[in-house]
Amino acid sequence: MRIIDKIYINGQFVKPLGTEVQELINPATKQVIGVVTLGDEQDTRDAIAAAKAAFKTFSKTTNEERAQMLQRLHDVMMNKLDLLNQVAVDEYGAPAAATAGRTQYAAKNFLHNMEVMKEFEFEKRIGKAKVVLEPLGVIGLITPWNANYTHISTKLAPAIAAGCTVVIKTSELSAIQTQVIAECFHEAGIPAGVINFVNGRGDVVGAELTRHPDVAMISFTGSTQVGRIISRDGAATMKRLVLELGGKSPNVILDDADFHSAIPLAVMTAFSNSGQACHVGSRLIVPEQRLEEVKKLVIKTVEGIKVGNPWEEGTFIGPMVSQKQYETVQRYIRLGLEEGAELIIGGEGHPEGLDNGYYVKPTVFANVTMDMKIAKEEIFGPVLSILTYKTEEEAIDIANDTIYGLSAYVSSSNLDNANRVVSQIVSGRVLINGLYDEPKAPFGGFKQSGIDREFGAYGLQAYVEPKTIMGYDIVPQ
Ligand code: NAD
Fold first, then answer.
1. Could you identify the atom of ligand 1 that is nearest to the CA of residue 207?
2. Is 247 near ligand 1, meaning CB less than 6 Å away?
3. Does residue 359 sit in helix, strand or coil?
4. Residue 227: CB within 6 Å of ligand 1?
5. Whose CA is nearest to atom 30 of ligand 1?
6. Angle 81-87-93 (CA atoms, 0-180°, nearest 5)?
7. Which of 428, 384, 342, 437 is nearest to 253 (CA)?
8. Is 0.70 surpassed by the pTM of this model?
9. 184 is catalytic
10. Does residue 405's CB lie within 6 angstroms of at least one atom of ligand 1?
11. Residue 96: band (very low, low, confident or very high) from pLDDT cuts 50, 70, 90
12. Is residue 462 exposed (0-12), middle (13-18) or buried (19+ Cβ within 10 Å)?
């Protein structure tokens, strides 16, 4: 049982003024594994004040000093990998094998940003002007529950690289993971006030960060719905915004694709991180005349997927993070049936023998059309919709018929065909014939999937602001 009764302000773990207490539940067992005391508005203001005070000196540190800090932040995470993984599996329920990779990925973010920072031009000449890219100031980092460490490091690393100070508000569901990573960062010996953590509710701590005039930018990852609130409430103080929001990503299988590899890959892509990921390819778009073949391959793949205890070897899908998320997935499965989609595998309820946790059945609907809610709305669970097309043009129209534009996938045995389709898909990231990652390439969404980008130089760019200076080299007569 973990008692999380401290927040991290100005280099110290202190008792919050807030008194609301929330239980933390292991989603694989429904057992209470901890309690967290939530911070309030005044706690948030105290953290912002600490970050503001620290900014004065931190913003003047050298690249070399900040590079050393990034290295230390990486090292402290790597030293505590086992503990970080253990609490992530217990609190979030993601399968252990995937969690281990994700935690290392989160730590590596610090090194990638160190490399990016070393090549970044913080000062440029444009004609007679000197343009200095200055750190923005205090940044509010607000993150969701689905990959706690990754979201924190993705936002914190460029902040440190730029010379900004931060107040971090993670999800209410991730308090144990947040406590452990905060303890890691404390060991990294970063100057007091540069990194602050306040546990708390979104409409309390998150809202105060969004409103506060001393916070220059909010870097937010979460739902499009909350992104809209932050965008609206941040406007009063002209907040800079990085918003990484929802998705309903298309996976277009061209007729010439190798279906025996493309369809299993499409299923795994849709169900990765137990379907609780923003980039999952939750709309599988296939040629109409191949639908029966696709259905058989999908069913065979899903039957081979292990759902269950996240600690067991081979588990690919763990429980949903919470009772609420379990119910959301159930609601969408019911909706799919009511809307007339054809359920080809899965369905409502728990998989057999797994009613001790928030487990859902990996579920696939065929004969889905774009007027159905299951095709339009982000479900954030292992529910896949299959849609069909007659022509390539129609496939592209279906792919783009969404308010989102975060990720997309295309399969074809012919690269010319694949690239032709990719050039017409409106999405921040498109992957051809596989799953790849390039940690220094930008990630983010077109349309209502977000504003601005994370990772690499594009990510760092968001944390600095250009100051144009002229006459700096003209000696007064
Ligand atoms: P959420 O939007 O409910 O919450 C995200 C964070 O915002 C939490 O810390 C929450 O407490 C906080 N919050 C809630 N109300 C707030 C308010 N009024 N002001 C400020 N902060 C507030 O999202 P979630 O359920 O935690 O996560 C799932 C969502 O995150 C999905 O929609 C998913 O697509 C999205 N997501 C996006 C990406 C991406 O990179 N684009 C990555 C992962 C998750």
1. 19
2. yes
3. coil
4. no
5. 222
6. 115
7. 384
8. yes
9. no
10. no
11. very high
12. buried
User: Which is catalytic among the residues 91, 184, 278, 378?
Assistant: 278
Contacts of 261 (CB under 8 A, 6+ apart): none
Q: Do domains 2-245+445-469 and 250-432 have the same CATH topology?
A: no
Helix, strand or coil, per DSSP, at residue 290: helix
Round to the nearest angstrom and report the end-to-end CA distance of the chain.
72
123-126 and 129-135 strand pairing:
antiparallel
- Judge whether 267 and 302 are in contact, CB under 8 Å: yes
Convert the pLDDT of each residue in 383-423 to its tens digit. 999 999 999 999 999 999 999 999 999 999 999 999 999 99
Q: Which CATH architecture has domain 2-245+445-469?
A: 3-Layer(aba) Sandwich (3.40)
- Per-residue tokens: 226: 């909350």
Residue ranges of alpha helices (H) inside 249-343 are 259-271, 291-303, 323-338
Q: How many CB atoms are closer than 10 A to CB 283? A: 27
275 lines ligand 1 (CB under 6 A): no
Instruction: Kindly state the percentage of the chain with pLDDT values over 90.
Output: 100
Rounded to whole angstroms, the Cα distance separating 477 from 465 reads: 32
Instruction: From 151, 223, 402, give the residue whose CB has the most ligand 1 atoms within 8 Å, as the site to mutate.
Output: 223
For ligand 1, is residue 282 a contact (CB within 6 Å)?
Answer: no
Phi, psi of 358 (to 5 degrees): -85, 50
Task: Please calculate the CA angle 449-453-455 and round it to the nearest 5 degrees.
Answer: 130
Among this protein's residues, is 278 annotated catalytic? yes
Distance (angstroms) between ligand 1 centre and the Cα of 406 equals: 15
Alpha helix ranges (H) inside 27-162: 41-58, 63-79, 81-92, 96-119, 148-162
Residue 447: how many other CB atoms lie within 10 Å:
17
Residues 159 and 185: their CA atoms lie apart, in Å, by: 14
Please tell me the predicted confidence (pLDDT) of residue 297.
98
Q: What is the CATH number of domain 250-432?
A: 3.40.309.10
Which residue has tokens 């329920």?
Answer: 93
Query: Which amino acid is residue 379, in one-letter code?
Result: I
Q: Cα separation of 97 and 273, whole Å? A: 11
CA-proximal residue: ligand 1, atom 32 (nearest):
223
pLDDT in tens, 237-280: 999 999 999 999 999 999 999 999 999 999 999 999 999 999 99
Domain ranges of the chain: 2-245+445-469, 250-432
Other Cβ atoms closer than 10 A to 59: 15
Q: Which residue is catalytic, options 208, 244, 378, 454?
A: 244
